[in-house]
Design goal:
Layout: H1 2-11, H2 21-50, H3 52-62, H4 73-88, H5 92-111, H6 117-133, H7 138-152, H8 159-169, H9 177-186, H10 193-209, H11 212-222, H12 226-231, H13 236-246
Helix pairs in contact: 2-4, 3-4, 4-5, 5-6, 5-7, 6-7, 7-8, 9-10, 9-11, 10-11
Amino acid sequence: MANSGKFARFTESGERPKRSYATFLFAVGALLMAAALVVLAVPRVIAGIYAVPAREVIGALNQGGRVSVPIASDLVIARQALHMAQAWQNDAVLAIELARIDLLLAARDINSGQDGRQLLDEVIEVAQDGLRRAPAQARGWMILAEATLARDGVAAPKLVDYLTASLNASPYDVWLAPNRAWLAMMLWDRLDARARELGGLQMLLVVKNWNLEILLRIAKQVGDPNPAREGLSVDPALRQQFEAAYFRL
C-alpha cells in the first residue's frame, strides 16, 4: 500500500513530463497530414458542387425520364456543369456522365439534321478516358458502342468488343437491356457464343421488365427476326409468342 501511495502523490503533484523532440515532430507531422487531407478533399467538394445541375438531369434519366426538346437546354447546362466539375477533379464517373450527356446532345443534333460528329468525337474520347480508370462501368461501354456506331457505322471493328464489355460488366442491368438487345441483334453474326447468350438475356429482360411490343419494334427496326428467335430459344413459349406477333406486323 505504501508504494501505491507514493505513486498516487507523484501523479497528482502537478509535475508534467518533459515533451521530447520526437513527440513534437510527431505532432507537426500529424498536423501536416491533416492539412494535406483537407487540401486533397477540396477539389472533390468543389467538383461535387459544380456537378449538382448535372446530377438532376442524370437522376431523371436513371428513373426512366426523357429529356425532350422543350427542356433540351437542361442538357447543355448539365454538360457545362460536368466540364467545370472535371476541371476540378478528373473523375472516371464524372467522365462517363459527361459522355452520356454529350451522346444525348449529339443524338438531338443528328435527328434534327445537324452534324453531330464533333460531339460524337468528344463522347468517344471522354468515355474511353473514364473506362481506362473504371473498366467495370457497363453504361460507359454501351455509350462508347453507341457513339462509335453513330460515327463510324455498323462495320466499325470495335463495336463487338464494346458491346461484349458492357454485357460482361453487368449482364442483368435492365435499364441497358433495350439498347443492348438492339445492338446485339444488329451484330448477331459477329458475336461469339457467350455474347449471343448474353444478348439473348437482354431480349428476355426487355420482355419481362417492359413488354413484348418493345422487342418486336427493335426486331422490326433491325429488319431480321432471326436473332430474336435464337435469343429467345431458352424460352420456347416466349419464342413462339414472338414469332406469331412478328409475322402479324
